[in-house]
Amino acid sequence: MKVFIGGPLKIKTLKPDVISKLNSIIKKKYKVLIGDANGVDKTIQNYFFNKKYKNVEIYSVNKFRNNLGGWKSNVIKVETKVKNREYYSIKDRKMAEIADVGFMIWNKKSEGTLNNILNLLILEKKVCLFIHQESKLVILKEIKDLESIVNAENSTELMELYLKSLENIKKSYKESEVNQKKEVQLSLKIN
What we know:
By secondary structure, the chain is α/β, with parallel strands linked by helices. The protein has a single domain, classed as Rossmann fold, CATH 3.40.50. Helix content is about 50%, strand content about 20%. The chain contains six helices and seven strands; from the N terminus they run E-H-E-H-E-E-H-E-H-E-E-H-H. The chain has helices at about 15-30, 40-50, 85-100, 110-120, 145-155, 155-190, and strands at about 1-5, 30-35, 55-60, 70-75, 100-105, 125-130, 135-140. It has a seven-stranded mixed beta sheet with strand order 4-3-2-1-5-6-7, sandwiched between helices. Strand 2, helix 2 and strand 3 (about 55-60) form a beta-alpha-beta unit. Helix 3 (about 85-100) runs parallel beside helix 4 and helix 4 packs across helix 6 (about 155-190). The protein is globular, with a radius of gyration of 17 Å.
């Protein structure tokens, strides 16, 4: 079982329910896929490093920022020099594709974490979501489960972020499908 773990840059502490989940991952010997960012990524890396857990792979774009345990490194090459949300989301999408499930820590503000959750759900992968400020674990099986959480917050700002993220991710998957179809058609013409 491969678990994609992620969360916001602003969260740098692990609450008891998160630690319990991480210990369960260790006990079950799941493979952990995690990014190289500061915040949750680095904090989780530090936890696994201190536990001497080896079944971890780190994903990065172009070069590594953090790999505290010297684990297997996966560098995703990108041709742009502009380091924005889209730049880093390339590695996140790759981890979502490889993972069987997700474990996300979210503050109901982080666009990157929201994108990770949506990527996993669009790929029909379950997400164990820890809502940081509520110290609450929720299992998401489909997008409507996430939408219920967003609606319950009663925040125009969060709803706008959710709708924008959902639209962008759906668009990116459609573009990906179109490019794959073009590649297949091209290979058929060549053969």
